[in-house]
Fold:
Amino acid sequence: MNCTVTGVGLAGFGTVGAGVWKILQQNNELICSRSQGTVQMEIRKIAVRDLKKTRDTDAPANLFTTNLEQLVDDPSVDIVVELIGGTDAAFDLVCAALKAGKPVVTGNKALLAEKGPELFTLSQQQRTPIYFEAAVAGGIPIIKALQESLIGNEINSIAGIINGTSNYILQRMTEAGLAYPEALQEAKQLGYAEADETLDVNGWDAAHKAILLGSLAHGFLIDYENVYVRGIEKVTPLDIRFASELGYVVKLLSLVLKRENGEIEIRTQPSFLSKKHILASVNGVFNAVAIKGDQVGESLFYGRGAGQGPTASSVISDLVEACRNNSSERGFLPTDQKAALLRLITPRLLTMSAFP
Ligand SMILES: NC(=O)c1ccc[n+]([C@@H]2O[C@H](COP(=O)([O-])OP(=O)(O)OC[C@H]3O[C@@H](n4cnc5c(N)ncnc54)[C@H](OP(=O)(O)O)[C@@H]3O)[C@@H](O)[C@H]2O)c1
Structure:
């Protein structure tokens, strides 16, 4: 089949970046034939920090560089994939790519939640899109669900378990009666928690994702300083026992709620979830997002929220979309000038027995 070849510049070749390479090695023909010959991708440059690191792929050494700018400057690179993480070098890279008219694919929720206003404005000015399916809930296609499948709905609520590390720790505290430090230690030993677990357990990783979902659902850029965020570090076995006796489980829940006055409430916090609630059965490192639309009613998205294959699978879907449709309208565009965020400074006990 005669496909157009698109040059990809990969920034980052860690868990997700190497996953993208592997999928393209394995399934490029499949992608080409499914896209009816319109899409074939070739990775033409890979930026990493350490050229000497041993890598478990057959990527040729001549593709590697430590210079991120080369991805933007190389004329054979058409699309830049940002998978280095963080908000500094990643911000500079994404800005430079957009200014050069190269679409960006990223899995970096922290970058988009904290610097979304600058980046999406630049994307709009440059008419060059940013795709970010991998930034929320790993392999679950939740961004496209909101952008496409549910476009005919007013979104009344989104409730998500969107941090697998916290979910695993709370599950072990519930099932095995472990205290938080022991459960965290176990999660680290099994590779479910990073060496630096801060953003996972303090709620901010989930909050970044909730901010992105809230922006997409309600059409305005959300100021991350005005959302309510509490992590799981202070949850005790006693909290979990009391919850259980009252018929609840404790979960780190992220909520995006549309209030009657139209204001949008966004919270991430440990919450009491009825044992009968559909999200109560989401265990381990799995994620789930329950969305209530005014037409569709309740719908549930469930799957692996992180990991090499699932996250790279989302990156690939964005890459294919970028190849097919080189237009800024597919990224994020503010659409509701009147939308307002409820400024959340007060705690409140969250209990859920049904869809909100
Ligand atoms: N891992 C997941 O399951 C997952 C899920 C969803 C979203 N994400 C997001 O995806 C992104 C990547 O995550 P990851 O887990 O793949 O990270 P990772 O395993 O730590 O890999 C990061 C990669 O970026 C490279 N890098 C870092 N800083 C760099 C710089 N300044 N210049 C050039 N290269 C640089 C590193 O190079 P070296 O290899 O030389 O160190 C490494 O290859 C993050 O934004 C993360 O939040 C990850």
The chain has two domains: 5-141+308-330, 151-304+337-352. The pocket of NAP is lined by residues 12-17, 47-50, 53, 68, 83-85, 89, 107-108, 134, 138, 306-307, 311 (CB under 6 Å). The chain has a mean pLDDT of 93. The first strand starts at residue 5 and ends at 11.
